[in-house]
Design goal:
Oligomer: single chain
Organism: Sinosporangium album
CATH superfamily of the largest domain: Alpha/Beta hydrolase fold, catalytic domain
Largest sheet: 10 strands, mixed
Keywords: Hydrolase
GO molecular function: dipeptidyl-peptidase activity
Radius of gyration: 23 Å
Shape: globular
Distance between the termini: 49 Å
Number of helices: 10
Strand order of the largest sheet: 1-2-4-3-5-6-7-8-9-10
Protein name: Xaa-Pro dipeptidyl-peptidase C-terminal domain-containing protein
CATH class of the largest domain: Alpha Beta
CATH topology of the largest domain: Rossmann fold
InterPro entries: AB_hydrolase_fold, CocE/Ser_esterase, Galactose-bd-like_sf, Xaa-Pro-like_dom, Xaa-Pro_dipept_C
Length: 464
């Protein structure tokens, strides 16, 4: 049985519509997805879960699609989520237990309501917020997903074509096609929401599945939440998702075969609904980039891993780059082949040849002299034998005017490069539009020891 436009009272009493899928046998446990992205894309998954014996409730969040009010990211999900779960638990078709599920902002909404007494499990895929946001990813999310009542697919790229270096929106946010809110992003725009989600994760005493992708800015958040959860199953893959980054026909990402994250989520939820062990349905596993290998091991890195140097080969041990605000060092989406950028003199590039292997968050140490404040960006790039170069991860460190020691903490990743592949570390003054570039010309000098500059977590075990 399927019912659409079912009114569910929100915290203030107003109705937030939902679609309800009921299985043949009732009462049943209820899978709940509260979404800002519209419910129709979730109908196929809801039908599969109903066939497996679970009821499903798909609800539009406050201010999105059919629901009245204003959508303010991060504002209403705790109280509205609890109100929805109160209503669901009181239905005669509910057995009084709820399973929460969601991708990106949906995962945040799920965690906000995870302290409700009816909750018996959570599935979180590539959760929002993803920590300190890359500027292009954050503006894309706000443009196409996070403002107004409906999604606006394709609007970011259309607007970017008219303002390719984002100078317009940086100078005047009102010039952008949608109101992006506080811009550019600062810690005040995401830290409160991140703390709220982490508090709910830490307090949850239920099984949880954490699905993450190394190619997504939320990889750090996925692992941090999984490390805090009491009963976590974790799968880190290389999935490309339209909710995490934009893809093009010329996509340079190679995603190896493996379980689809939706299949993993549905298997986990179906096992919970049947009162079975969900770990047996999914199991921890880890994709190692470069080698393209899946390991049946927990992707959670140790909290304080031992670090070993990974020798680099710079052109010189001392390098100077000059930033030109009229031509800042460019960034491209995750899917892009960075080799098209070509040679430039406003980058310090280092290389490491196999064996290159680590798992977790690496660090880069250097001494920097700058004649003005700047954000130093370190980008790790994987070059395949054919010449295609794809970003693996990056990190930033604020630099003040003068000379100082700097440590860039890179986003976590699992890397094992085979022979014939090369790892590059690129140091730039910003990386526009992903990381904001200085608005004035400046000179940046980087000194490092190529033998000890890059510190990588020691592998936990040898490759099979």
């Amino acid at each position: 049985m399927i019912s659409v436009d079912v009114p569910i009272p929100a915290a203030d009493g107003g109705p937030l519509p939902a679609d309800v899928f009921l299985p043949a046998r009732l009462p049943a446990p209820v899978v709940v997805v509260r979404t800002p992205y519209g419910t129709p894309p979730l109908w196929p998954e809801a039908a599969v879960l109903a066939e497996a014996g679970a009821a499903v409730v798909l609800q539009d969040l406050r201010g999105r699609y059919r629901s009245p009010g204003e959508f303010v990211p991060g504002a209403d999900e705790s109280r509205d989520g609890r109100a929805a779960l109160d209503w669901i638990a009181a239905r005669d078709w509910s057995d009084g237990t709820a399973l929460l599920y969601g991708t990106a902002y949906e995962a945040y909404a799920a965690w906000c309501a995870a302290d409700h007494p009816s909750v018996r499990g959570v599935v979180s895929r590539q959760p929002w917020p993803g920590g300190p946001p890359a500027m292009d990813d954050e503006l894309w999310w706000r443009t196409e997903l996070g403002t107004g009542r409906h999604l606006r697919p394709g609007l970011y790229d259309l607007a970017l074509a008219r303002d390719p270096d984002l100078r317009g929106v940086l100078a005047d946010p009102a010039s952008w096609p949608v109101a992006p809110g506080p811009w550019p992003p600062t810690p005040s725009t995401w830290k409160a929401q991140a703390r709220r989600a982490l508090t709910r994760v830490r307090g949850a005493h239920v099984p949880s599945l954490h699905l993450g992708s190394w190619y997504c800015g939320s990889a750090t958040t996925t692992l941090r939440q999984a490390a805090l959860a009491r009963d976590a199953t974790v799968v880190m893959g290389g999935w490309a998702s339209p909710l995490t980054h934009r893809l093009s026909p010329e996509c340079a990402i190679e995603v190896p075969d493996g379980d689809d994250p939706r299949d993993l989520a549905l298997s986990f939820l179906a096992a919970l609904a049947a009162k079975q062990d969900p770990r047996k349905a999914v199991g921890d596993r880890l994709l190692t980039l470069g080698a393209g290998r899946w390991d049946d091991t927990s992707p959670l890195p140790p909290p304080a891993p031992a670090l070993d140097p990974a020798p680099l080969r710079p052109a010189t041990a001392r390098s100077t780059l000059r930033h030109d605000p009229a031509d800042p060092y460019p960034s491209l989406p995750h899917s892009a082949d960075l080799s098209v950028i070509g040679g430039r003199d406003d980058v310090v590039r280092l290389a490491a040849h196999p064996p290159v292997r680590w798992y977790g968050a690496a660090r880069l140490r250097c001494r920097v002299t700058a004649d003005a404040p700047v954000e130093l960006v370190a980008t790790v790039v994987h070059e395949r034998p054919g010449g295609a170069r794809v970003r693996l991860c990056d990190g930033t460190a604020p630099i003040s005017a003068g000379t100082q020691d700097a440590t860039v903490r890179l986003a976590p990743v699992a890397v094992d490069l085979p022979e014939g592949h090369v790892l590059h570390v690129e140091l730039t003054a910003g990386r526009h539009p992903r990381h904001r570039a200085p608005g004035r010309a400046l000179t940046l000098t980087v000194e490092l020891d190529p033998g000890t500059a890059l510190l990588v977590p020691r592998p936990r075990k040898e490759s099979p």
